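Handout, section B. The chain below has 267 residues.
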Amino acid sequence: MAVIRIDDPEDPRIAGFRDIRERDLTGRQGLFVAEGEVVLNVLTSDRSLCRPVALLLDRKRVEGLAGVLARLAEETPVYVAEPPVLDAIAGFHLHRGILALGEKPPVRTLEASLAEMGPDAVVVAACGIGNHDNMGGLFRNAAAFGADAVLLDAQCCDPFYRKAIRVSVGAVLRTPMAVGLDALAMVEGLKAAGFEVIALTPGAREPLDRAPRGGRVAILLGPEGPGLSPEVIARCRPVGIPMSGGFDSLNVSVASGIALHHFSRRA
């Protein structure tokens, strides 16, 4: 492990960490920035599907992270700096003092993702989820309840956005996924692979607690407000989560957790 001291915020070796918020919006060509010790633990674990490219740390954090840093490949650089230099590099106050630059996993097709799954696989599929907090919550729930993959249509936001990774407590980095899919083609592909596609929608007559478990199941979620399109729902089995007092709205992340709890448990 190479520990390299950085004294100049303009040092070209740390260009990937510079002006983080602006780069969050413009993209990093297959790379991402993650922050915090919890996420770093996931990124460097054997469960991670992503490769650590470089670390940038507050000098005072190095000793406490010795166990995590020992997992890194020998050629992975670990840059260290004093807090004022870190803040100048990032473009904001970095109170955690831990940043990692990682490489996204190879893009996978829907067909390749589904082919490896067993007869009782459960997947989360999402259409038009544009809020990064909700995206992170979907991945956190998927990991917590053992979903086999998360599938995202082309209208969803990037799950590797820094805030989505943070909210997911690193689950984005360890969860198999397929992204950039066409919504209708995703539904048809799931059905062709033997999945029953459950469209969560408040207008459904069938309540979630009566939906049978077992077999291959895909839980399909749409954005809060407009929800799933009628064309998508028409190709699925509509299921709703009953609520009290005529209330018919749940945060999409909460809804995913309730549905995953139902379908991931085995009698």
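Note. The mean pLDDT is 93. Compare this with the example in section A.
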